[in-house]
Amino acid sequence: MSSINACWLNLTVVDFSVQPSNGCTKDYLQVGEDRLCDDLPKGYTVLWPVEQGKDALAIQFITDSCITRRGFLIKHNFVECQGLITTTTERPSTSSLVFNCPFENGLFPHERLCKKYYDCKNNIAVLKECPSGKLFKEEVVENERFADCEDEDKVNCKGREKVSPFLDIKDAKK
User: Fold this and answer.
1) pTM metric for this prediction
2) Which of 19, 65, 118, 171 is least crowded, fewest Cβ atoms below 10 Å from its Cβ?
3) What domains, with CATH codes, occur in the chain?
4) Where in the numbering of this chain does the Chitin-binding type-2 domain appear (predicted)?
5) Euclidean distance between CA atoms 157 and 170, whole angstroms
């Protein structure tokens, strides 16, 4: 098997409905150290870093064997450090990219999760997450836009969720 020279694994939800549980403990898809659980909307897309020199990224479905939901279907492609590549010969349209950057460069809020944001550089978006205890804040003051991770008590999420369906395994062990 040949290695793919990519920086990111891009997973896109076609259908994702697994048994909900507090803290992603019943049914979840584990990608590296992150967990994907509960219900996610069609088209929801997430990037995971691919370690250079590694031929694999562990993806595992964990279940308590109680069937209460449909399950999941995801599709994937790989993102190079400088652009998008796929395992097919046809290059996808720009509408299939993770996030359409509103400006060539800058930080922009995730559409659903307050802890996550997109870092756009040269119109290439990379999904990032604020450190523990921080949430992403975007505001416009006197026609100037400010965006950064701030202390949770200083951020109005404006309808975005403060809790992520992705649970860091290190947090689950506490």
Assistant:
1) 0.45
2) 65
3) 1-96 (2.60.120), 99-174 (no CATH)
4) 98-159
5) 24
